[in-house]
Amino acid sequence: MDLTVVAYVIYLLISIGLTVWVARTLSRNGRVFIGDVLQGNEKLADAVNQLLVVGFYLVNIGFVTLYLRSADEIVAARGLFEALSVKLGVVLLVLGFMHLANVWVLNKMRRRGIMERQGTPPVAPQGWTTPQRWTAPTGA
């Protein structure tokens, strides 16, 4: 069997496995943030969480399949490991970026929800002025 095909199979198995693991981890732990943002609306939190997971799968598995092709033919075990290390390293970086992006968005949503529930400005006023009586303009 051609080692390039072996590299493809190993790459797909590891990449898709990692994608599923990261997506499940984000789904399980991100649901807490989404539930907090949506003020306990469990059905909506589950729906939003599921939509985020589907989008995560589509983007990452799409990238994995687009990045599958290799320009070089692999002829030795060393080439197999080198090709896999580069491909898997890039996939891990993309998964890490997507993970951080998801956490950032969820945190942004959570902070906005907290601010809306508090109803007070995030910073105390820094000055005070004496109210003035309004007087009608003269002339005309």
3D structure, described in words:
- The chain has helices at 3-37, 42-66, 77-118.
- It has 140 residues and is mostly helical.
- The chain is elongated.
- The longest helix is centred in the C-terminal third of the chain and has 42 residues, at 77-118.
- α1 (3-37) packs antiparallel against α2.
- The protein contains three helices and no strands.
- It starts with a helix and ends in a 22-residue tail after the last helix.
- Helices cover 73% and strands 0% of the residues.
Helices and strands in order, then pairings?
Elements: H1 3-37, H2 42-66, H3 77-118
Principal-axis shape equals elongated
CA-CA gap between termini? 98 Å
Can you count the helices? 3
Helix content: over 70%
Measured by DSSP, the beta-strand proportion falls in under 5%
- The overall strand count is 0
Query: Average pLDDT, to the nearest integer?
Result: 83
Q: Structural class of the helix and strand makeup?
A: mainly alpha
Determine Rg (CA atoms, Å): 26 Å
Q: Sheet bearing the most strands, described?
A: none
Q: What is the N-to-C succession of helices and strands?
A: HHH
* Low-confidence regions: none
